Amino acid sequence: MARRQILVGLLTLLATILTSCGTAASPSPASGSRPPAAASGRAADDLIARARASDHVVRRGMDGDAPEIIQAREAAFEKRFGFPVRLENEPGHIQRDLPLKVSKAAEAGRGAVDVVLSGLPNARPLLTAGYLRTPPWEAIYELWPIARTLRERVPAWPGPDGTTLADYCMARSHSPWILVYNTRNVKPDEAKSLTRLRWDDLTTSAWTDRVVWDAGALALYVFPFAPGWDEQRLRVYAHSLGANGVRLIPGGSPGVVQAVSQGEGDIGVTTLNVVRASLKVGAPLGFAFPEFAGTAFGVTCLPKYGVNDTSMADLYWAFGNIDGMYATADLGGEIRLYPEEADRFAIGALMREAGLGLDQLVFTKTPEENELTGRYRQLAIDALKEGLRTRTRITQ
Length: 396
Hints:
With 396 residues, the protein is of the alpha/beta class. The protein folds into 2 domains: 45-174 and 296-356, Periplasmic binding protein-like II (D-Maltodextrin-Binding Protein, domain 2), CATH 3.40.190; 177-294 and 366-390, D-Maltodextrin-Binding Protein, domain 2. Helices cover 42% and strands 13% of the residues. It is built from 15 helices and 13 strands. Strands 8-7-9-6-10 form a 5-stranded mixed beta sheet, covered by helices on one side. Strands 3, 4, 5 and 12 form a 4-stranded antiparallel beta sheet that branches. Strand 1 (57-60), helix 3 (67-81) and strand 2 (86-89) form a beta-alpha-beta unit. Helix 2 (43-52) crosses helix 6 (137-143). The longest helix has 24 residues, at 367-390. The radius of gyration is 29 Å and the shape is globular. The termini are far apart. The model is unreliable at 1-41 (pLDDT under 50).
């Protein structure tokens, strides 16, 4: 009996040992199943997870963007995050028309786009009206530390409830308005003379009936902020352009580039990114950097009212302004000239070589200057038309 009890005890002990070993080396999950992922708590992970669960659609302005630029943005996004973005275009000039569309839609509590791309002049009305929303900065900084710098470079113009423009936006671009010319019609010695060309030279007989300009006075409305310029000099200059036979073309920079490419004029004024995109597809164009270059100083912001999923818009908004910009820099995308990104935008080195760096860009630097741009634009439009009508120069 005692021997039997001892045997039962030994068997019980052995079973206990075997059970313990089996628990320590539990079998792997069944094929195709995965253990649940632990939540990291990081703001970036949460934002990505919410965007991944959306339909991945983002609406923004893309008029003038070549198809390969759009495709490069989408491909770079999917490579970074492992799920796609589908970009939809909202028609209209991104800096002139779309901010107005956003404002009109917001008045009715609706959205027009998911991402606002604008210059300072048209971003300020959206700010003061309360039509912008605060991005998820914590998540954005985790993903892109450079975003902090791009936010700090936005002028701290006052907004509602003690906020500033820098609470809502990042600096987007320094794509300057430069000279574009038709290489078939502009002689080599003329082309050589265009580097650091004085703007007044376009009103001389050498360029009579050869200059193309945007009908909306693109670039001209910031000229009064350049050294040696003021409102009166702008009036005389725009009138002189008209008297010299300037051809006014609708459609902003894309319209000007198309007109010069087709030989409707020999030289025009356009943003650098648009002319570079046209060069990529073989247009007969060249470009040069004038004595100074105006720029709208591009910013990118999130509208108070969007169209699609907010988290997807938030993620793409930051991506598009950083990785998306880098991915398209060599395709004719927009550029920035900050030293922290000098290795990302090779064209910046070419500008500095020509003597046109960040310090030679002209744009509105205060809210007070910004308020003047509407008046300057209309003044320039009227003077261009009057010069064309009279074909007579004025001096004051």
